[in-house]
Q: What sequence folds into this?
């Protein structure tokens, strides 16, 4: 049973590392700021969750698993919030998304 848990933990950690690596490569290859933070935020949310999940499987039911779960919860809350704040600040600073021809900072008025 221990070998199966070690295999599951290793697969989760390796999969999480692959997601983080893909997010880093995607952040370098995307054309503009908004697509870069979109791709990075998706992999920044899933990658660490998989890595921490693998570490939790490896640690078993201990206090370490509870601490890793707390870190995972913190990452799941703060990462999307930080990405939203960054994108909102860029939009308010006047950085327009590529390919958008109308002004997205002001809502359209109903007719």
A:
């Amino acid at each position: 049973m221990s070998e199966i848990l070690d295999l599951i933990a290793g697969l989760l950690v390796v999969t999480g590392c692959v997601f983080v690596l893909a997010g880093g490569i995607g952040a370098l290859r995307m054309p503009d700021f908004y697509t870069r933070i979109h791709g990075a935020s998706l992999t920044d949310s899933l990658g660490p969750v998989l890595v921490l999940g693998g570490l939790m499987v490896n640690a078993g039911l201990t206090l370490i698993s509870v601490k890793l779960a707390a870190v995972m919860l913190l990452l799941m809350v703060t990462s999307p919030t930080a990405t939203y704040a960054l994108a909102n600040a860029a939009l308010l600073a006047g950085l327009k998304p590529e390919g958008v021809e109308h002004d997205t900072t002001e809502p359209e008025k109903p007719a």
